[in-house]
Amino acid sequence: MSDEFRRFDLNLLRVFNTLIEEESVLRASQKLNLTQSAVSHALARLREMLGDEIFVRIGSRMQPTERALELAPIVRNALHSLEVAIEARTFDPATAQRTFTIAANDLTTILLMPRILQTLRAEAPLIDLIIRPVTRIDLAEQIDLGKIDIAIGTFATTPSRFRSTPLFSYDDVLITGMGVRQPVNLETLQQMTLCVVSFGADEQGADGYLLERGLARRSDMYDRNALEKAYSSRGALPRVGVVLPHFLALPALLAVEGCAAVVPRQLGRALEASKQAQMQELPFPTAVLEVSSLWHVRQNRDPAHAWLRRIIVESSATLRDTGWENLATFR
Hints:
Number of helices: 12
Radius of gyration: 24 Å
Protein name: LysR family transcriptional regulator
CATH topology of the largest domain: D-Maltodextrin-Binding Protein, domain 2
InterPro entries: LysR-type_TF, LysR_HTH_N, LysR_subst-bd, WH-like_DNA-bd_sf, WH_DNA-bd_sf
Largest sheet: 5 strands, mixed
CATH architecture of the largest domain: 3-Layer(aba) Sandwich
Low-confidence stretches: 323-331
Number of strands: 15
Shape: elongated
Strand content: 15-25%
Family: Belongs to the LysR transcriptional regulatory family.
Order of helices and strands: HHHHEEHEHEHEEEEHEEEHEHEHEEH
Distance between the termini: 72 Å
Pfam families: HTH_1, LysR_substrate
Keywords: Activator, DNA-binding, Nodulation, Transcription, Transcription regulation
């Protein structure tokens, strides 16, 4: 151990990690139960010891420097390892007080969170959840920095520093407004105005995925390639009249005559069961995709995190019976 490290105050690492999370001296002081002057003094000591500004004020935000971003995952991993080592034998969901942050779109929130919340109320009444949207954020960076505990989505590639577990699979179906009885084939679909969901239409690649720091996550929530292939010999695609960043507005849009939407099968079933829409099979096959939970490898040995991962998998059980294996004959 070097003399420089012996002189280093390890309490400064907690301040550093909290500033990375909060990007505010005020919020960091509140979270650490310290005065703002104490946090500012700790930041000054960090700057002196590390020979870097670490954080630069831009407006009301403390923006981390490149050196700080390099250190952030290392510090986070070290603090988390200490936390797991100390708490490994003491985690009891019935008495544990903890807040987990989950990144999920509104589809998985609608389908999964009611079941997860029921389990929390029964088994872990003091554990809270923060649900963050997956739109317009660098998801991989947020997981690396420890700001997100688990992400739920469809991932094409996952770097070695992440782990994942499959939750359920889905294909696409068509939903229309209540009372629409018109059978759907390639001709009738061509006359409709389609509403689709995409979480990053401006930034994604041609395959409908966003690539961030080695993590490729699906942002198009419909099989655009299958749609284009089905109409490749017909000259014109059905009109995609509305592209949304969320699913919640779809039932209201379906009230407009001639509008329909392409959605994952489980959501189509849920909207039909609640009488917000009618579900029909599309007149062409679409890809079967897998929704998974994703987390950083440093969380593997955290018993609380492992417990939450198990709860998410168990809450997905009813969604795994998709029924897409028995699709009607395509017209």
